[in-house]
Write a structure and sequence with these properties.
By secondary structure, the chain is mainly alpha-helical. The protein has 2 domains: 1-94, RNA polymerase sigma factor, region 2, helix turn helix motif (Rna Polymerase Sigma Factor, Chain: A, Orthogonal Bundle), CATH 1.10.1740; 100-193, Arc Repressor Mutant, subunit A. Helices cover 70% and strands 0% of the residues. α2 (18-40) packs antiparallel against α3 (43-60), α3 (43-60) packs across α4 (70-92) and α7 (148-155) crosses α8 (159-182). The termini are far apart.
């Protein structure tokens, strides 16, 4: 027997079937968390956002009309919740961008792992310099693989807005990460991944 699709689970959840809603959470929790983490940049914050997304989904399930796919709707709820969280955090803490990457690794490992670790911290730090709306389009388009229309629907903005935000975000990231390309090791150094 095939498992029920999302639309069937939504219909069952709308009638109060808690097992159906639990299945929705099981299916989508990892992706919601991944999107939240890429926007919020902290595991604990992403967990809080993920929890908020599913609380919102549970409360809003009766009003979900199915105009969009469940995944698109959850993306929209996740992005909005994560952006709200980031804005609130930025008001409370003006210097959160610098907090990542300041702690040296306790296990330096081989040279390649060290270089990759530095790259990952630099990319993470560079993402943190983007405006929240630019970070959201990078996460949705470049990391989650959504096309422009899907990202626009998730964000509730026109496709042209997604394209311009994405272009500006990519340009800013390229400037911020340009030094990584020039500091490649002489032997076997490939492009930034």
């Amino acid at each position: 027997m095939n498992p029920p699709d999302d639309s069937e689970l939504v219909e069952r959840a709308r009638t109060g079937d808690h097992a159906a809603f639990d299945e929705i959470v099981d299916r989508h929790e990892r992706r919601v968390f991944a999107v939240a983490l890429r926007i919020c940049r902290h595991h604990e914050d992403a967990r809080d956002v993920t929890q908020e997304v599913f609380i919102t989904a549970l409360r809003s399930m009766a009003g979900f009309r199915g105009d969009a796919q469940l995944t698109t709707w959850l993306h929209r709820v996740t992005v909005n919740a994560a952006l709200d969280f980031v804005r609130k955090r930025q008001r409370r803490e003006a210097s959160t961008v610098e907090e990542l990457g300041d702690h040296p690794s306790s296990d330096p490992g081989p040279e390649a792992a060290a270089i990759e670790s530095v790259r990952a911290r630099e990319v993470h730090r560079a993402l943190g310099t983007l405006a929240a709306d630019q970070r959201a389009v990078i996460v949705l388009c470049d990391l989650e693989g959504l096309d422009y229309a899907e990202a626009a629907e998730s964000l509730g903005v026109p496709v042209g807005t997604v394209k311009s935000r994405l272009h500006r975000a990519r340009m800013q990231l390229a400037r911020a990460l340009g030094h990584l390309r020039t500091s490649e090791p002489a032997e076997g150094g490939g492009p930034l991944r």
